[in-house]
Amino acid sequence: MGSPGILGLLLLYLNVLISHSSAAQQQPLHSVIDAAPKRVAVIGAGAGGSFAAYELRKLADASNIPVNVTVFERASYIGGRSTTVNAFDDPAYPIELGASIFVEINENLMNASQALGLDIRGADHFRPKETEESIGIWDGSNFVFTMKNDSSWWNIGRLIWRYGLAPIRTQNLMKTVVGKFLKLYQEPLFPFRSLSEAAAEVDLLDVTASPGDAFLEANSISELFAREIIQASTRVNYGQNLPLIHGLESMVCMATDGAVSIPGGNWRIFDGVLQAAKADVRLNTSVTEIVKTNDGAVQISSKPTSDLDSTSPDESEFDEVIIAGPLQYSGISISPPLQHIPDDIPYVKLHVTLFASPHRISPEFFGLRDKNAHAPETILTTLPEGHNLGSNPKGVGPADFWSISTLRTISRFVEQEDGEQQREDHYVYKIFSPERPTAKFIAQVFGIEYSHGTSGSVTIAPDNTTIGDLPKGEISWFHEKVWHPYPLLYPRVTFEDTLLAPSIWYTSGIESFISTMETSALMGRNVAALMVRSWQREKDERNDSLTGKIEL
């Protein structure tokens, strides 16, 4: 007596299925199939990891695929290499330690900032603008070029007078190259599984295969403009000279129109998108091991960063893992071993020195003898004519530093000798250099003299002292950081793929192509889109299989 009832129910269900054939009306079936959320681990809360989580949430929700995202970050903060420190330990004065700006064409960062309601301001909105020249390019003995504050026509005129048509040719070349790159944002190329194949598709491998100086020469950009202007940009952005860095990154350095930043720190973009992704963010947590289990899951072992040696690991299972940072610096053990391990890429060692002082940059140090002269507020550097260091990564040359920037002024109450408090304006500076600046160097650049050693003598600091040895009245606050913020961008034509092994994804292959916050965000989105497409295919196959069984 039971069989006819079952057959009747099946026929009734089939009629309902046929009469409600649209995808939206079949939603209850999908909900049953996809009841178990996809579990995704993202290792790294920088640009790549945060935008991977952000895109996963948006695409999975749009496809009605439940997803749980867990983000592991070994640091105590979100943002990776985009982070701030507080001048004078005062949260009212956050200072960018890493990635300071992004530009108008960075659509991932711009769109997210606008969607999150973040304030977007000109990148130099805090700069004092107290001197006539905003930027000077120093070759170790002379300023080869300076740019004035708020005088675009004067600057353009001087550029054309000194460099002829090279600035215009460079602008046109940059737009062509960047236009090719932007095709990677669009279908049918996006999302791309192979960056090498995508770069070939948009005709950029010839650009990445060539050193910057050779690429510029082949495109009729004069050596003078390349060395003095473009190389100054590659040095401040990447600590590399044109014969070392490839042509694509050389052009990216010149795409500076509409430079902006987020007050409070650009890290706020990445914090905001992680909140929008509804991710479970675990700060101060280091992933130590990734194990692919027999049932196809991925087991993650993690420990508190502060107690890696003695703490027992916490173990969690996931369906997919995204490694959103250079694998070579991660300290993660992976088993079974990867069939292809990403290349170890040499990264630049950069010293960042932030400090505050009542002193301006010394015009005398830079050879400006006029008693009324002021040094430019931002000083970039290049190599002098005839001083060719080739592709040597130790390429700072006679300037000894990459850049010095005046960031802002901060008004502080300072105790005087009589015990009274007096308000003083202190300038906040940032120095990029390949080595730790000595107290002697800083004292000379800022015209500081002080008693040292013999009582009553006034001398410049000896070579073995550091900024912390200078008097508090001369250097009122400082913070030093050494890190590896970007790779040596040697010419190359192959780049790491996005999938290192089944269910193990990778975002940092793009860093040898272009190393910016925006491109890391792009690769995070790219990996997320590939992942959700694979889930959608699985979902469609299950639905087709179920439909086929019903038809039988």
TrEMBL record:
It holds the Pfam family NAD_binding_8. PANTHER family: FARNESYLCYSTEINE LYASE, PRENYLCYSTEINE LYASE DOMAIN-CONTAINING PROTEIN. Belongs to the prenylcysteine oxidase family. Residues 148-541 form the Prenylcysteine lyase domain. GO terms for molecular function: prenylcysteine oxidase activity. Transmembrane segments: none annotated. This is Prenylcysteine lyase domain-containing protein. GO terms for biological process: prenylated protein catabolic process; prenylcysteine catabolic process. InterPro entries: FAD/NAD-bd_sf, Prenylcys_lyase, Prenylcysteine_Oxase1. Residues 1-23 form the signal peptide. Its cofactor is FAD. The keyword Lipid biosynthesis does not apply. Keywords: FAD, Flavoprotein, Glycoprotein, Oxidoreductase, Signal.
